Hints:
Elements: E1 3-7, E2 36-41, E3 55-61, E4 66-72, E5 78-84, E6 90-93, H1 95-100, E7 107-110, E8 115-130, E9 146-147, E10 152-153, E11 157-159, E12 162-164, E13 167-168, E14 176-183, E15 188-189, E16 197-198, E17 202-210, E18 219-229, E19 238-241, E20 253-260, E21 267-273, E22 276-278, E23 288-293, E24 297-299, H2 302-305, H3 307-312, E25 317-325, E26 338-347, H4 357-392
Antiparallel strand pairs: 1-2, 2-3, 3-4, 4-5, 5-8, 6-7, 8-9, 8-18, 10-13, 11-12, 14-17, 15-16, 17-26, 18-25, 19-20, 20-21, 21-26, 22-23, 23-25, 24-25
Amino acid sequence: MAAVWTLSGGARAVLLLCWFSSCHISVSAAGTFTRQLSVQLNPGWNSSSPPAGDLLHVRAVGNNDTLHFLFCSQGAPTLLLVHTDSASSSVQVNWTQFLSRNTSGGLQVEPESSVLSSAAVVFSRLLEYDDVNNTADPTSDLFPPYELRDFIWSRLQLSSPAALLCGTTPTFGNGSLCLQLSVFDLEGRDQSWPRLLHSANSSQLGVWLDGIPPRASHSRFLLELQVVGGASPVSSVDVRQSIDDEFTPSIFKVSQWVWSENGSADVLGFAQWKPVAYRRRRPALEDATPCRHSPPRPQSGVAAASGLVRAFFSEPQSVGLNVSFGLAGEPFYNSTGFLSWTLLVGVGSPPVDSFSPLVLTIMAVGLGTPMILLLLGGVCVCLHKGREAARTTYEPIN
């Protein structure tokens, strides 16, 4: 049976897809714009659970629009975002077509005329290479990739408002690749690094590699992502600089991968991340490791890899990139057997970090104090010259 939960009154739907139940996420209640969230597992399915994986639907209703977040583990894990201009739009699943994966139309958002934009993020492959020379160059010594569509994914077990998912292969032993999905009803940021700023128009995805047996003594990993949709191909990733690392210590950059309709200036959606990963579950500053991304390039075959993409898009266009973890001289994956990375996905323009009151105060003190000293010094010099001029002024004798 389909399970439904509704969260209201400033509550947040946090959908945790991971391998441990102690994930701790909290959000600041700083935002003013909120959405009404409801969570549904396998909408329209009448049995205990469908074969080959589950479908999770989060409906986020605004004042006059709706965001539909759909996460599916049939094939490669996929997050689909559909934005509509109706507060009453709904998701309809034809499970016969959806499970067959041989035609589009198995999943629709109705009314179809209300759809403003749609895009999917597919986690397609995990790659590993032997960095024996410690150069962090992933172009050589690559092992055969792990195709995530071939992973054995656990069922989504919902306990309001949480859901758990874990993926593994026969060669992983007790190791796993895991995902964490959070959907929010208002603006805020997590307490855990990298503390990305989110809004009611975004969701957060975390990726963990936990205990995966490395195939070399100097292993490093890459994760392949694909953005799928009917929009024009995404050509580049914009890297923004900042002077504020208050929330993500030692990281002064944010990477933004945005897409628009036919190359227009209007941004329909985005994927945003800080170029940092962490080597432990509860990271400290010394556990941070830099990451890089390759240029986005057109891809093919994504519909065969993702059941959700096949069901929703009739003619999907896909652009992919790799995110590589670790630079030359950084510890290898073997050092801890753990790696985590966080991605923000949403509609519209990406959230922009502004300077916090603490940073503004520090800037005011740092810049204002020298100005005050200069002004006081100038006043003192003027007064001193005035007194000197008064003593040397000639006064005639009557």
